[in-house]
């Protein structure tokens, strides 16, 4: 006697549901040798506008071009090939543009200092308009930075440095400018503790301009930060001829 159709379909569906999922394709697996850089701070790190104008025009300079050896950790915590704007979906409700992240990664690969065959993993975390007080331990921004950094470590990466570009918003009020050095010092100490990396390197971009009258106060605080297992090394910007 023929088997009724509906029970047969139901039985087949159960069998399919119980089957193990197919193994991931090799191309879907993130490389296990990633050299990771955390990108944090405010809009100067996130990127605003385009190269030729104040609005994002989609034009990407060669220094910021995509490279198969440069990945980014997406808002959904998945590794994908990095491209501008790096902070799309991270610095939400804003139109992000070209920032320093891709230019840094491409320059590092060209220099050869990352090692032959290296894959760089960029972890964008910057949010425009933020003050240092919004990055201290206990805030949402700090928690998100640590969470994303840990995911990068757990998926086969080692953190090379935190790239920090922030400070303009702290030049408006004396209270923020006066506390900048202490808050920055605590940020680095807490990151080193929470990521179990006592020698975590932080590369900070010195403040070039500010929004308020206390720019020099913040600038001096950046230069005067004192940390265990570290020192402040300053160097100027030099444009290299190609």
What do you see in this structure?
- InterPro entries: Carb_Esterase_6, SASA, SGNH_hydro_sf.
- Keywords: Hydrolase, Signal.
- One of its GO terms (molecular function) is hydrolase activity.
- The chain has a single domain (28-223), classed as SGNH hydrolase (Rossmann fold, 3-Layer(aba) Sandwich), CATH 3.40.50.1110.
- It has a 6-stranded mixed sheet with strand order 3-2-4-1-5-6.
- The chain has helices spanning 5-18, 43-46, 101-111, 140-154, 174-194, 215-223; strands at residues 34-41, 70-73, 79-81, 119-124, 157-165, 202-204.
- It is α/β, with parallel strands linked by helices and 242 residues long.
- Helices cover 31% and strands 14% of the residues.
- β5 (157-165), α5 (174-194) and β6 form a beta-alpha-beta unit.
- The chain is globular, with a radius of gyration of 22 Å.
- The termini are far apart.
- α5 runs parallel beside α6.
- The protein contains 6 helices and 6 strands; from the N terminus they run αβαββαβαβαβα.
């Amino acid at each position: 006697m023929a088997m009724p159709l509906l029970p047969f379909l139901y039985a087949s569906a159960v069998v399919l549901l119980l089957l193990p999922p197919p193994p991931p394709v090799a191309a879907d697996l993130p490389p296990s040798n990633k050299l990771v850089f955390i990108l944090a701070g405010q809009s100067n790190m996130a990127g605003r506008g385009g190269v030729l104008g104040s609005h994002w025009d989609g034009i990407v300079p060669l220094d910021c071009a995509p490279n198969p050896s440069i990945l980014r950790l997406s808002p959904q915590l998945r590794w994908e090939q990095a491209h501008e704007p790096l902070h799309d979906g991270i610095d939400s409700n804003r139109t992000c543009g070209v920032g320093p992240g891709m230019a840094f990664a491409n320059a590092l690969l060209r220099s050869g200092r990352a090692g032959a065959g290296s894959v760089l993993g960029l972890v964008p975390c910057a949010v425009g308009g933020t003050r240092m007080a919004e990055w201290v331990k206990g805030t949402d921004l700090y928690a998100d930075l640590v969470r994303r950094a840990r995911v990068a470590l757990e998926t086969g990466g080692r953190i090379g440095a935190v790239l920090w570009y922030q400070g303009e918003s702290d030049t408006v009020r004396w209270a923020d400018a006066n506390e900048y050095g202490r808050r920055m010092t605590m940020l680095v100490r807490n990151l080193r503790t929470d990521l179990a990396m006592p020698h975590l390197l932080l590369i900070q971009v010195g403040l070039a301009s500010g929004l308020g009258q206390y720019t020099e106060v913040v600038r001096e605080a950046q230069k005067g930060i004192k940390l265990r297992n570290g020192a402040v090394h300053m160097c100027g910007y030099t444009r290299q001829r190609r």
